[in-house]
Amino acid sequence: MLQAEGSEAPIKVEFDNFEHGFPEGFGPGWWGRLAYWIGIAFATFQLYVAAFNYLPSQVVRGVHVGFLVLLTFGLIANFTARSDVGRALGWVIGGAGFFCGLYQWIFYADLIARDGDPTRLDLAVGTLLAVLIFEGTRRLMGAALPLMCGACLLYWFFGQYLPSPLNHRGYDFDQIVTHLSFGTEGFYGVPIYVSATYIFLFILFGSFLERAGMIQLFTDVSLGLFGRTRGGPAKVAVFASGMMGTISGSGVANVVTVGQFTIPLMIKFGYRRAFAAGVEATASMGGQIMPPVMGAVAFIMAETLGVQYSEIVKAAAIPAILYFASAFWMVHLEAGKHGLVGMKRSEIPSAWKALVTRWYLVLPLAALVYMLFEGFTPLYAGSMGLALTVTLILGASITAGASSMVIRTIFWVGLALVVAALSRDGLQIVPVASVVAGLIVITAFIRGGFKALRECRDALAESAKSAITVGMACAIVGVIIGMMSQTGVGTIFGGWVIGLGEKSLFLALIMTMLLSILLGTGIPTIPTYIITAALAAPALAKLGVPLIASHMFAFYYGIMADLSPPVALAALAAAPIAKENPDKIGWEAMRIALAGYVIPFVFVYSPALMLQAGDPMAAKLGFYGAVALATFKALVAIGLFGMVAIGFLFTRLTFVERLVALGAAFCLLGDFPFSDTAGFVLSAALALWQWRQRPPAVVEAV
């Protein structure tokens, strides 16, 4: 809870996990204004990097980490310190961290020249940076991730004393600090590179879209499409959260934004509190796997695999649709089981009217998707999408006072012609930036224009604050990456997975799944994916699993960990909205997301589900035939799992019927003679039996 400006009382905030991040605002008094303007400076620097990219990559990473540490300690002090002295101390510590990042820029040429031969100042700066990153991460996310990275650091220092095969050759202090704090495989590795480029830019993109009114558009369209159907409020939650996931990529952010509306709505129409919150948690976490933006992990995955981001999007598309289809199916069955009805026509807006009125909000997202699939880099596509969003916000502000539709049309057509004239040789950042700058000037001189400009300015500051927890996780996980790259310890675990997989690929997958879920109960999705992918994904690839599928397998279960008690961060975020126990919500979310635990096994055994080559059925049916079969089998399987979890189809299922449904689902997922045939026959028989057992009342449509 924030305190009034000028108050000296501490502000009670829990910083015990990654996803919840900071509370609203920037702190009391001028300390808050300091954080606000530093956030704007941070965002401005990142925009400059995205637009012009003149600085060396190492410098960009260093300054990015410097800003992260500065704002981490500064904001924590703003929200928790009991006095101005405490807040000043936090900012001084953060300033030391900013200097450590700036050190990469000031001494860039010298650091390259003396690579491998650090000075005492280099070692001091590198050590200080490590201490600040560990402590900052502990303050933000709790002790789990720093303790895990600390254990890796201890192994790095003293692993030579362990018995074979766990031992390594041993490394001196200067070797470790240099590798960790000055190379590109430690704090400044691939995760922080992705954070400093793609992730920050897309956080900005999502923030501006939200301020343009995208949440309201998604909500109105969802209500119009599904509000009147059986259990409509829950279907609205699934659809709206899935659409929000296309621009936010953050599960808990979806819960606390969309959930504020959907959870009370579901409760009002008869859903149990735990189930309603579980629906929102399940749908919101799915935002991280929903193209086109997905979560931060997707960008790290693309960079790690060295493939275009569009390839990750294509691979993720069908599994993501299946995930949300499963959640949709679950809430439909739950509504049928308890006789829940939809909303009244008078209570819901028109989806068509919402689209006609605010169709232009879809343009930035459509442009982003088009550019990604045309081969443009995510950095370029995100920059153009962001510029288009800002143009829409400012243009709407300029034309708001125009009474005539003709004048508005002339403005937008004229603006389009100006952009076209400036971009005759291709869409370049300088002409686009010039148009945006011109709109800013015009907006400043019209009535109400300053409100739009303040919205844009606030979006910059809020994006910087939102990027802190993601960025700090990317920084500290560099300890694990650096340790593994220098010691080669990852090959040991990989050897275990390969050895297990030679006996049974299924057991190797189970081992990888358990590792990812166990890691995910204590640390965020990003480091969970990075660790699991580094340890297990290469081994799975050697066992014949397509590389993207092996990495996506690790990713999925990192997400599932956020739904699984005892931690279940998404459930924790939903608990205060639903006024329900987080553990109850977590168990309900696991039940609703049952398909999410199954889909990764499906796309490993049927790579066609991810549009990857190597599917066993491709030889018989061709590639697209294999895709169609894999998708159909997965749809039937998740339909069966929904019946097992909810216990309903046309009427309530008996225990024996649930067992039959479960057996049919496993037949469709299995790989033995006549397994598909058995699965389809059992499914058809069970559906026909349920249809015959249905009550005489009229069966509602979906």
UniProtKB/TrEMBL annotation:
Q: Where is the TRAP C4-dicarboxylate transport system permease DctM subunit domain?
A: 129-396, 431-613
Question: What are the record's GO terms for cellular component?
Answer: plasma membrane
Q: Which GO terms label this protein's molecular function in UniProt?
A: transmembrane transporter activity
Localization (cell): Cell inner membrane
InterPro entries named in the record: DctM, TRAP_DctM-Dct_fused
Q: Which residues cross the membrane?
A: 34-55, 61-81, 88-106, 141-158, 190-209, 274-300, 312-331, 352-373, 429-446, 467-485, 505-523, 530-549, 555-577, 589-611, 623-650
Q: Tell me which UniProt keywords the record has, alphabetically.
A: Cell inner membrane, Cell membrane, Membrane, Transmembrane, Transmembrane helix, Transport
Instruction: Give the way it sits in the membrane.
Output: Multi-pass membrane protein
Role played: Part of the tripartite ATP-independent periplasmic (TRAP) transport system.
Protein's UniProt name: Blr1302 protein
Source organism per entry reads Bradyrhizobium diazoefficiens (strain JCM 10833 / BCRC 13528 / IAM 13628 / NBRC 14792 / USDA 110)
